[in-house]
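Risk register update: the risk of archive-format incompatibility is retired. Evidence:
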Amino acid sequence: MENFPVFTISSASLSQNPATPELISRAKSGEESAFTEIYNLYFGKIYKFIYFRVGHKEVAEDLSEDVFVKVFSKIASVASHGSFEAWLYQIARNAVIDYYRAKKPATVALEEVENTLEYETNVIDALNLNQDQKILLELLKGLSKEQQIVLKLKFFEQLENSEIAELLHKNEGAIRVIQHRAIQKLQQLVKEHITK
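Archived output:
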């Protein structure tokens, strides 16, 4: 069995700077310190991405660790710097799908699991959202699933349109259109809510 490095989050971790091609190359060559840097850059984002989908701290921690073990063991398969983040998020997304597959009866449609982006009450409470934010999250439910996904990836996960396009297997222009229409619809829903 392979030995995996022990990872610790440094005080300077969770930087907003993406992994550089040089850093990825170092990790591909097996340099443990490079992989630790990647872990420190992305662990917080991946944890948040998973936590929003599972709603349990311990489960999110376990799945996040599993994601990075898988990334470490398969980093040589990453084609280029441009696709690294999308590849990383795809591994995280698959971990969530596998978690729900193991938890749910076989009769639940996989599409339902893949598109689960609804916030459980305990997640909202944990995030300590104020009333306006709770209303906004409720209004998001008035959008199509695709629009919800795009807005949540853009504003909650803070992904770039190019990253969202790669994750959703669409072109960047299509993502901009979905985002624009979703924001227009959300503005309309907010106005309707205010006038109630």
